[in-house]
Structure formats: structure tokens, C-alpha cells
Amino acid sequence: MMEQTSLTQFILILSLSSVYCLDSTIVDLVNLEKIELDIDVGRRVFKNVQYLGPGYASLQNLQSIKFDTCGHLPLFNDSFKYTPYLTHIYIQKCVVINVKSGAFSQLPKLKVLKLDLSGFSEYKLDQFMIFDMVLSLAMTQIEVLDMKDVWETAQTVNTFPWEEVNEMLLNTSIRELRFTNNVNVVFPTGRSVPSPQSLQILNLSMNSLNEILLNLTHVKYLNLQGNALGKYLGNNSYMIKSESKLEYVCLANNSISNLNTAIFNEQPYLRIIDISYNSLKEVDFDLSPLVKLHILNLSFNAINHLDHKSITNLDRILTKSDNILQIDLNYNPLHCNCYTLSFLTWMQRRREHFITFSHFKCKYLNGSISPSNLFEEVVLYLERECMDYSYLMVIASIAVFAFIAILLTAVIYRHRWKLRYIFYTAKLKYVKNKSDEELTEYVYDAFISYSDKDREFVINDCIENLEQGVLKLCIHQRDFVPGEDITDNIINAIQNSRKTICIITRSFLDSYYCMFEFNMARMESIHSRNGKNTLFLVFYEKILPEELPLVLYELIQNQSYIEYPNDEQGDVIFWQKIKDAIHT
């Protein structure tokens, strides 16, 4: 038997044959606080193997035990029967581990359980074993539960029992819960069970999760790094909208290209946000409620610049006098050109808010990279270059605008009468079937367009010689509807008359409304009468060709007209020709 010793730490490497003689070896180490065991009881052992036998009952100071690089380690319901004082258990690098329900129920003082099966274990835990293990931990004083790479990926049902784990730990003193480095894990999102009030640290990193929904009222630290939440977080949040005390959230390495705009709403205590190692190009998620935000980690993303919306979004926080926000944009492919100059200038103005601002580099249009520690010089260079470019763009824009304006003016002027005709026709809601042109009944046989200075000729001669028969004339002084717009009366007269007769004199050419009537009648012939000539010109005065407007001169070159003879014999022929023209 060994004499009592002050030894507080002891490392033993044991095989199955040495397990049974361990009690007599260790019984006198009453001051022992920590022990590390390398145990392999063999895979063929089907009964309880008491590798922590009665000899451990005397080790009342033993608080920590570590199973390291073990072979087959079964944890039965009474494996810790003689070590009730344990507060810390560490299990790692075990090839095979088998946890029975109630394995930890005899450890009322247990505070820390760390289980790491990465890289070694052939047999890991399914959801039912995790359920049983956590159920037994509910009878302890557990504060830290760390499970790394413990998930049995070959199982057919791979939904992590989050709701059950939450409910079983609800009345414990759990402070830290880590479930990391597991693959093929499906997280339930149908119902969100509140987390234990004592839980402050939740680490679910490296689990390949593609959906998640948490109810975190008291948690302060949340790590979701290394999952596959990018698509999900584009339209959803990682937690329900409720009162939150969250101070740190890590969404790094989640293939995020964009985030739900309201993802950080109702989290007023957030101090650190880590979204590094993603594919973000903009910062369009709302940060305005985060008055306590201290660090925004955007490093290793795809940001080449921030647009006006993103800058405005960040400025809402940065403009607050007491704000100490630090933004990490390191290792983003920043571009330095005239298009991004406003962003670079904003960065320089807010330089105290950027981590390692002086070390920033950016890429020019020619592909070259600016040297570090010269960011201010880069901005100054671009300001000079882009000023000349801006002047050139302004001049070019003015030139293009002027060209378009001139071209548009020319087109409008060229087709001014056509446009005016269309406008006034649409205004009157004129509807006509062109195919029934010959069947149309007109109110008047002819509309007489004349200058007021030629009124006597129209009243004394035209009416007398043309209305004595069956012809009905439209005379504006007699037939226009009082109170209507004069242009409406003109369009109505032209459209309701078989022909329009223009009495051409110098006063006619000088009159705005006479020329308006002439051009509207010309448009009527072209666009509403299937090209049939409805305009007839009567030259009441001798007018030289150079005195005529170009459009009128071109018209008399292609169409017949008649001159007033002003003699008794010629008058008879003159009036007969007008009657024939009206009926043609």
C-alpha cells in the first residue's frame, strides 16, 4: 500500500488487465485532484467493468478526470458510483464510446462535461444517446456541456433533439452549451423552445446547418460559424423576434451573399457582429437599432465598394457622438476608380472607425494593386483624375442632350401640323371608318376658309352663287358654335364638310387662324380621307410665287387651283368649276 502523498495530479495508462489492480494502487492518493486515464476495456466486455472501483471512494478531493486516447470506453449507469465528488469530466480521442442512460446521474457536483470524438471514434452518438445523456445531466450541477464531433452521421434520423435538450436543461445551471463540428445535422425550426435562463454561451458552429430558429432570451454569446445558412438567412433570422440580451453573434463562413434586412432587429445589446469569410457585396441590413455595436467584422468578403444605401445605413450609427464602432473591411477586393471614389472618400472621412485603415489596398481598373500605407494618396490621385473625367462627362452629357433636343425639335417642327391635327382630332374623340368614306354623309358641302378682310366677297358672292342650288356652305361667322374653342370649331367644320375651300389672299397668308385652317384641311386629306384631295384653293388676289409659304407653293405645284377672274363672263365659268370641284 502506498503512503499518503501530497500528489494532486496523476496520469495513468491502463489496459484491461491493469484496471482491476488500480484500486489498491490509488487508494492512498487522498489529495489527488486531477487524473488522466488511458483505458481500453475491450470490445467484448458486455458486463459492467468497474474501472473506477471502490478505491476511488477515498479520493474525496478528486474533481477532474480525463479519458484521453482511450480504446473502448463504456459509460454504464454505475461507472461513476465511487467518484461522486467529480466536477469536471473530459473525454477525447476514444475509438469507441458507449454512453448508457443515467451514466452521469450519480455525479451531483458535476459542472463541466467535454466530449470530443473527432478523428478517432468509430462509433458515435445518435440522437437517442444524446437524449439519455442530457437527461442524466439534468440531475447534476452542469454548467458547461461541450460536444464536439459526436454525431453519428450514418443514422437514418439525423434531427438534432434541440427541443428535448432545451427542456431537460431548463431547470439546470447550464451556462455554456457547445455542439460543434458535426455533419448531416438537421435543426428543427417548427417550434422554438425557450433556452434555459442560465444559458449565456451557445456554440453551434461547424455543423453544416442550413436552417435554424432559436429562442434566446438570456444568451449573450452565439456562434453559428461554419454552417450553410447563407440562403436561409437571406430571408429569415436565426432567432425569433423577442427581447434579447445577445451581445455577440458570429455568422462567419456561412456562404452568405445577402442578409435579411431586419436580421439584427430587437437585439439592442449587440456589441460584436462577425460576418467574415462570406460573399457579401453590400451592407443593406438594418443596423440602426444597434446603439451599442462596437465591432462589425466584414473581412474576407466580396465587397469592392459600398453603394449610397449601404453608406447611409452605416452613417446612421457613425454619426452618433458616443459611437465607437470599429469596422473590419480587411481582405475585401476594394476597387479604386472614379465610380468608387465617393466610397473611398467616405472611408477616409470615417477613418477612425476602420480597423488598420492605413493598410488598406485597392485595385485599379488596369488590374494593378495600390501599395499599403498610401490610401490617402490614392484618394487624392483619384480626385484629380476623376475631376477631369467629371468635366468630360458633363460636357459630353450636355452635348448629347443638346443633340437630342435639336433632333427632337426638328422632328416636331417637321411634323408640327400633323401632330397638331392628331391632337385636336383626339381631343374631339373623332371616330371614323375609312372604308366607308364614300358612304359618309357630311353636314356641309364645303367649308369656306377666308380672312375677315375678304368677308364681303364670301357673303355677297360665295353664298349667293353656291347656296342658290343644293350646296350648303359652312361660314365661320354664321355656323361656328358660340362658346366652343375656336380650334374645336375649325376641326369640326373641316371634318363635317366634303371639301374645304381656301380663299387665298395676302391677308389670308398673314392670318394665324387662316393658315391653321389650311394646314388642318391638308392633314385631313392625308390622314383621314384615304389620300383623297379635299382641299381646294381659290386665289382671289394675284400673288407672286415667292410670296407664298413653301408648303403652299409645293401644293399648287402638284394640285389644281383656280384664280378669280373678276369679269362677268369669267365669273360664270369660275362658279361652275367650284361646284364641280365640290362634287368631285
TrEMBL record:
MF terms in GO: signaling receptor activity
InterPro entries recorded:
Leu-rich_rpt, LRR_dom_sf, TIR_dom, Toll_tir_struct_dom_sf
Sorted keywords for this record are: Glycoprotein, Immunity, Innate immunity, Leucine-rich repeat, Membrane, Receptor, Repeat, Signal, Transmembrane, Transmembrane helix
Q: Name one GO biological process term.
A: innate immune response
Compartments where located: Membrane
Report TM segments.
Answer: 389-413
| GO cellular component entries | plasma membrane
TIR domain residues are 442-582
* Signal peptide feature range: 1-21
What's its membrane topology?
Single-pass type I membrane protein
Q: Which superkingdom is the protein from?
A: Eukaryota
Give the family from UniProt: Belongs to the Toll-like receptor family.
Protein name in UniProt: TIR domain-containing protein
